[in-house]
Design brief:
Layout lengths: L1 H18 L3 H6 L6 H18 L28 H4 L7 E8 L6 E7 L4 E7 L3 E7 L3 E8 L5 E3 L3 E2 L4 E7 L13 E10 L8 E9 L2 E10 L2 E7 L3 E7 L6 E2 L5 E2 L5 E8 L4 H5 L1 E9 L5 E9 L5
Parallel strand pairs: 1-8, 9-16
Antiparallel strand pairs: 1-4, 2-3, 2-5, 5-6, 5-7, 9-12, 10-11, 10-13, 13-14, 13-15, 17-18
Length: 305
């Protein structure tokens, strides 16, 4: 009985091969005709499996790329690997908490102590998490990308596995921009030899009719962000004890609306001789009679004079 069944299957297989004009190939390579229906069945099963699979993964309604894997918004390791993929546990987790009413898009940027950008996240929520941060000290700058308002933290030591840095949003942070539109200058002050950040006083000067006037002056801990009116010419002056003053009045910059320009102010340390050697400054005074009197005065070299 089994022999008769096998003969019928073999005969049907040969007829199928002949109908597909494949009988000569089977004979040439001495292949049993039963492989032809088996191959057809395998192909049909594969097509059925392919057609039954989902056409695509479900779209993600959550803000993929914000550093937080939110399953309630459809994020998972497949649809949003940027947030949900396993990460190395060698670094620290830094969470930035914005205190205040977040009413628009912001850019939250994390910098290390050398003023290098670690990572930048954008969104309109109040918390932003930076996992696997390997720096020892970090600084946070939050920028409103529409009106260029910004707020920054001091440098924070990462002395535990999880750190939360709170930042209070100032009043008017999300107010609509009024003319003129704003731009941003990020100033990094470093030792020209070691490359280490330097606490310094940074002044932003605007050029008007060939003259420079100071519009803002601030003490920073090596990295500072300044908001300025766009489309004007600016110079940056950075001063620190025992260093030559950094001054760009001979090479001012102009910044377009909404742009952020980074300035690296490399300060040259003064030598021992420069610190002790007196310099002369010409002084011009007016006496009671209105007569101008000029003369030279010896002064110690301070701040690169």
């Amino acid at each position: 009985m089994l022999d008769n069944l096998w003969e019928k299957i073999d005969d049907a297989s040969w007829k199928l091969a002949a109908g597909l004009h494949l009988d000569s190939i089977l004979e040439r390579y001495n292949l049993p005709p039963i492989i032809l229906p088996i191959a057809i069945i395998v192909v049909i099963i594969a097509l059925l499996l392919l057609l039954s699979a989902p056409a695509s993964y479900p779209s993600v309604s959550g803000p993929c790329g914000d550093g937080s894997c939110d399953a309630t918004k459809g994020e998972d390791i497949i649809s949003c690997p940027a947030d949900c993929a396993p990460r190395s546990t060698g670094g620290r987790s830094v969470t930035v908490e914005l205190i205040g009413d977040v009413r628009g898009e912001v850019r939250v940027t994390l910098y290390d102590s050398d003023a290098n950008e670690i990572e930048s996240l954008e969104g309109s929520k109040s918390t932003y998490t930076f996992p696997n941060v390997n720096a020892q000290r970090v600084k946070v700058i939050v920028l409103n990308t529409k009106n260029m308002e910004h707020v920054s933290s001091d440098f924070v030591n990462l002395d535990s596995a999880t750190i939360t840095i709170p930042l209070v949003l100032p009043r008017g942070f999300f107010d609509e921009q009024v003319a003129p539109p704003k731009a941003s200058i990020l100033v990094s002050v470093r030792d020209a030899i070691t490359g280490s950040p330097i606490p310094a006083r940074v002044s932003i000067l605007v050029s008007q009719s060939g003259y420079f006037s100071v519009i803002t002056s601030e003490d920073i801990d090596g990295l500072g962000s300044f908001q300025v009116d766009s489309n004007q010419w600016y110079s940056i002056v950075a001063e620190a004890d025992n260093y030559r003053t950094y001054d760009t009045k001979n090479n001012p910059i102009q910044i377009a609306a909404g742009d952020e320009r980074t300035i690296e102010a490399l300060l040259e340390p003064l030598t021992e001789q420069q610190l002790t050697q007196p310099s002369q400054v010409q002084v011009c005074v007016v006496d009671e009679a209105g007569v101008y009197v000029a003369g030279n005065v010896d002064v110690q070299t301070l701040g690169g004079l």
